[in-house]
Design a protein that fits this description.
four-stranded antiparallel β-sheet, 2 helices, 184 residues, Umud Fragment, subunit A
């Protein structure tokens, strides 16, 4: 009887340790803080992020180990906000390193070709003049090496690369996997 109990306790302890390791190293639960990704992810939605797919960083360094794949156009990513490193935000990758991204009257062009994602939404019909701010129209931006141009799916209510510039690769924390609450 004692042997069986010890086996169950050991198995339970091992499962807890493995679960904590996976949560700490691979999957991160996250709560959406803003309207920038609405209707894809609404404020308060809970979702999981894969923190290993783009490479795990060694602690206290910028060295990336075990990169499974590079970030791709269309990926929804969790990233460290460049203007306030204490904040983590979510956006979609629109422009890759070396590409030219431009906005004209709420339409986004990558290397001169229209980029329209099915999840993209516009809540407002008015056009904001480019002299006022870059929400609807912005000049061509060449994405630097090791950087990405990101935008929220709710294009009219997203503070993203149009306003603060390209996102450095080192700021990307993980890839959105799926929303788990509320149940889709």
């Amino acid at each position: 009887m004692k042997k069986t109990t010890r086996l169950y306790v050991t198995a339970a302890f091992g499962a807890i340790i493995l679960g904590l390791a996976v949560r700490a190293c691979v999957l991160k639960p996250y709560v959406t803080p803003s309207f920038s990704m609405e209707n894809t992810i609404a404020p308060g939605d809970r979702f999981l992020v894969n923190t290993m797919i783009f490479g795990a960083r060694l602690p206290f360094t910028d060295i990336i180990m075990l990169e499974f794949r590079a970030p791709q156009r269309g990926d929804v990513i969790l990233f460290q906000y460049p203007e306030d490193p204490r904040k983590e935000l979510v956006s979609r990758i629109v422009g890759l390193p070396g590409e030219v991204v431009q906005g004209i009257d709420k339409k986004v062009y990558v290397n001169g070709r229209l980029f329209a994602h099915p999840s993209e939404t516009h809540k407002e019909t008015d056009l904001v003049p480019k002299e006022q701010n870059p929400r609807d129209t912005f000049k061509p931006v060449t994405v630097p090496a090791d950087s990405y141009f990101v935008m929220g799916d709710n294009r009219d209510r997203s503070y993203d690369s149009r306003f603060w510039g390209c996102l450095p690769r080192k700021n990307i924390k993980g890839l959105f996997l799926f929303k788990y609450w509320p149940i889709p």
